[in-house]
Amino acid sequence: MLHFIFSVLAAGPCYHTYVTLHLLSSDCRSLLSYICYTSSSQFWLQVPLIIHMLHFIFSVLAAGPSYHTYVTLHLLSSGCRSLLSYICYTSSSQFWLQVPLIIHMLHFIFSVLAAGPSYHTYVTLHLLSSGCRSLLSYICYTSSSQFWLQVPVIIHMLHFIFSVLAAGPSYHTYVTLHLLSSGCRSLLSYICYTSSSQFWLQVPVIIHMLHFIFSVLAAGPSYHTYVTLHLLSSGCRSLLSYICYTSSSQFWLQVPLIIHMLHFIFSVLAAGPSYHTYVTLHLLSSDCRSQLSYICYTSSSQFWLQVPLIIHMLHFIFSVLAAGPSYHTYVTLHLLSSGCRSLLSYICYTSSSQFWLQVPLIIHMLHFIFSVLAAGPSYHTYVTLHLLSSGCRSLLSYICYTSSSQF
């Protein structure tokens, strides 16, 4: 029947084709396995056909969870004038969506979207994941030189992933996003996700998601990249461990990216004092034109800042500042030390011959140390500053600090 429909539709692009397939799937024991169709140069696939065809497939697949359903959609999108706009499906309580279905469906969508950069492609995937037993494992897509991935596609795709992952904490969710960003004109702007009380975000998801963001941002220095990550960390059991990214010679890391990324880290770390939080930031600063300006974080009464976090954070700052003496580097660290149980022990940095430490950096760094030390007299505070001054042109002029009654 479907072969007949496609044969009729293949008459040419001059006919508008609208097909609706209604099938009561209550008695369907053997579900649809493959729908394969190759569009020829004479046939321009219409949007309504895809929508109705997929609606038919999902209606058939919704027969029940007792059948294994595998669907493969092959469509040559070389002649597609009107691309797929919306695929909306709501899974009912009787249907447990299978992993292969999502993989094949997304593969079909991306194949259709790969028609060319001349079409604006907006895809929204709505899936109620309440009944999803097997969550999505991998979504892999490689953009070719003919396809410039649009921002809305990434936003909707990630929104779909997070909606699926939000099924519950009982499933291990690992998501890997592979995107060749060589041809990305419009970069990702916002990825916003709010974790509910029913969802405990896993560490691998964050690592892969950030790896995807950085891979996309690494397209080139000609684009201004602003990334904001909003994550309510109230239910985060496993916190972020490592975020590693190496900037290549083609990528000049922008200041807003670092600020937002660190703001995300601190928001996650602020979940509570019961978790040990270790964060390591690796950035090759040889090509960094715009250095980090401000890192501001206010520790609340519920968060006790750990020593390793400060050490790694400062190591990251100094590594970035070590790019060269041609840039004026001003760093301000604001930390309310009222709740700091473990104070900073050592800040060690050795200036190389290529780096002339600026006066404002030392002033701000010492101001940070003294602010932390001012937590109270009940803690033994030992601070060691190692600085090779052989290459320091502008040495420290004044170190002024007024001890308050509490210190």
Key words describing this protein structure:
transmembrane helix; transmembrane; two-stranded parallel sheet; 10% strand; membrane; 407 residues
Shape: elongated
Terminal Cα span: 84 Å
Total strand segments:
14
- The chain-level mean pLDDT equals 35
How would a textbook summarize the main sheet? Answer: 2 strands, parallel
Strand order of the biggest β-sheet: 1-2
Oligomer: single chain
Element order: H for helix, E for strand: HEHEEHEEHEEHEEHEEHEEHE
Counted by DSSP, the helix tally is 8
Strand content range: 5-15%
Radius of gyration: 27 Å
Class by SSE composition: alpha/beta
Unreliable runs = 1-407
How helical, in percent, are the residues?
Answer: 25-40%
Transmembrane segments: 43-64, 96-116, 148-168, 200-220, 257-275, 303-323, 355-376
Keywords: Membrane, Transmembrane, Transmembrane helix
Give an overview of the whole structure:
There is one protein chain. With 407 residues, this protein is of the alpha/beta class. It contains eight helices and 14 strands. It has a domain at 291-407. The protein has a two-stranded parallel sheet. Strands 3-4 form a two-stranded parallel sheet. Helix 6 links the parallel strand 9 (242-244) and strand 10 (280-282).
Any chance you could write out the topology, listing elements then pairs?
Layout: H1 2-9, E1 34-36, H2 47-61, E2 72-74, E3 86-88, H3 99-113, E4 124-126, E5 139-140, H4 151-165, E6 177-178, E7 190-192, H5 203-217, E8 228-230, E9 242-244, H6 255-269, E10 280-282, E11 294-296, H7 307-321, E12 332-334, E13 346-348, H8 359-373, E14 384-386
Parallel strand pairs: 1-2, 3-4, 5-6, 7-8, 9-10, 11-12, 13-14
Keywords: Membrane, Transmembrane, Transmembrane helix
Transmembrane segments: 43-64, 96-116, 148-168, 200-220, 257-275, 303-323, 355-376
